[in-house]
Amino acid sequence: MGVNTLHFSPDLAAALQNGVVAVLPVGAMEQHGAHLPLTTDTVLATGVALRIAERIGGWSLPAIAYGDAWSTEGWAGTISVTPDTLRATLLDIGRGLHRLGVRGLVTVNGHFGNREPIALAARALIELGLPVLHLDYPGLEAAAAEFCSSKPAGPGFYHADEVETSMMLALAPELVRMDRAAAEYPDFPPTFGSEPMQLHTFNSSGVFGDPRAATAETGEKIIGRIVDDSVRLIELWQKAQP
After folding, report:
1. What is the pLDDT of residue 239?
2. Which of 53, 180, 238, 241 holds its CA 20 to 30 A away from the CA of 161?
């Protein structure tokens, strides 16, 4: 039985008897320069989550397509939800999964601003009795350093650059406009990361880095590393469960 059959209730009921794990991608609706779509974070999180679910025989859930993207609201197209809204949404989904009897929940986060709301929801769900593992593309930084030819705009900072563009070329090339790809390396303010800050105040294009060297081959390598590292963590997490 392939993972996609779990979208039908009778097949899911059988899988629940065997202790299936749910895999939930969490994305965002935000600008990614002129060459990538507003849905980039959701497309990437969904693609990675599907591959993880296939590897572990998990139940792949539809993505949460809106995230905490306040920092990019200065550009057209970004639609953000508050951290409390995202946390509450995850709690409601988690409660439903707990009621159904899944063995655990794995979240696959595609957007930096979602990290804190996901972590807080995970803590509450664990207290409820639902094991949660929240993943933020493990192995990404090492993979970017190994496979990409361009330098990142900042340590561990990947947005509309070679990394995300390559991953999009691997997963949804029809959504990428490489003819519009352009580089920007902004000067980060000295207090970046230490105070709330909207990115358009020091970046004009919404691109952080250089997407022009991106290829689908590079994207496949990066995704492969993320999936491998994610599956390894999931297996360790499952072994530690009572």
Report:
1. 93
2. 53
Summarised one tens digit per residue, pLDDT across range 110-169 is 999 999 999 999 999 999 999 999 999 999 999 999 999 999 999 999 999 999 999 999
Mean pLDDT of the residues in the chain = 95
What is the pTM assigned to this prediction? Answer: 0.95
- Neighbouring residues of 70: CB distance < 8 A, sequence distance ≥ 6: 80, 113, 196, 198
Cβ contact 177:211 at 8 Å: no
pLDDT of residue 161: 98
Question: Which CATH code of 3.40.50.10310, 3.40.190.10, 3.30.365.10, 3.30.450.40 fits the domain covering 19-187+203-240?
Answer: 3.40.50.10310
What is the percent of the chain with per-residue pLDDT over 90, rounded to a whole number?
A: 94
Cβ partners under 8 Å of residue 168, min gap 6: 36, 40, 43, 44, 175, 176, 214, 219
CA distance 68 to 80: 5
Question: Rounded to whole angstroms, how far apart are CA atoms 155 and 201?
Answer: 19
Confidence at residue 119, expressed as pLDDT on a 0 to 100 scale: 98
Sign, CA dihedral 198-124-225-45, equals negative
**Nearest to residue 106, comparing CAs of 64, 68, 60, 152?**
60
Place of tokens 């953000």: 80
d(CA 98, CA 88): 15
